[in-house]
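Reading a protein record of the kind used here takes only a little practice. An example makes this concrete, so a full record is given next.
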Amino acid sequence: MNDTATDVSRKQAWLMAARPHTLPAAAAPVIVGIGFALHEKQFAPLPALAAFIGAALIQIGTNFANDYYDAVKGVDTDERTGFTRVTQSGLIAPNEVKRAMYGTFLLAIVVGVYLVYVGGLPILVIGLASVISGIAYAGGPFPLGSHGLGDLFVFVFFGVIAVMGTFYVQAASLVAAPFLLAIPGGTVTMTAFLASLPVAAISTNILVVNNVRDLENDRKAGKKTLAVLIGYRASRGEFIGMLALSYLVPIYFATTSAFGLAVLLPLITVPYAAMITRTMLTKTSGEALNPALEQTGKLLAVHAVCFAIGMTV
């Protein structure tokens, strides 16, 4: 146990383990999914609420898994410059964090029972894949985050699937009977996929900032994140490319007859995004990138709210 453990209460330690600053990554896809559902006149409040609770639980469970597995595998060390990890620092015993991880994923599955009732077999498949991937991100014989697949995992599960799934359960609850075995028409569309891309992109950038900050420590520990594999320059290019995608989609929507000019509302966040980008292009220290990590989460939240509002006007 290091000195950090003597200054932190148990409640504070569990909050640190849950990482509430990452919850925008759970809320943002639900917000956009609701905005798109309102645009399509398919809004259903109970499925939307259940989707948010399930997404938040999967996010927290993934955080517990990352904290636990990175500690027991020796990835997290005292040299790490990021936010305090409770397992590595001795704030919470490893077995307790592990039990919390499984308990949180179990709660997500319980919430998922209702979503399966509404959305049927497709939601069952998506839900189980999300839980398994959340554990496999840092654990198991082939941890995704340690083999350069973390960015893809976040893009797909916390972006594309989360947004489209939120829209799907709302639309399915209105157009079809419970316990579906197939996907009803109009519930999975190309427009819904495009609407998911900004959330997917900025959610991925949260991980990019995290991995650029931890690049040297991860390299020493043998954790092959995408940032370790491609280096600082390409990681910064990935960050800029993801940001560009998050603004190109609203611009494209504005050129179509289906949406009004209000869909351009996310562009008000460009100056804030530019500020974060300047830090990303010039800094590598935890002192600089820890604030940038929180700022990217805030960017995700504000961008999602603006995009959702823009789609409904």
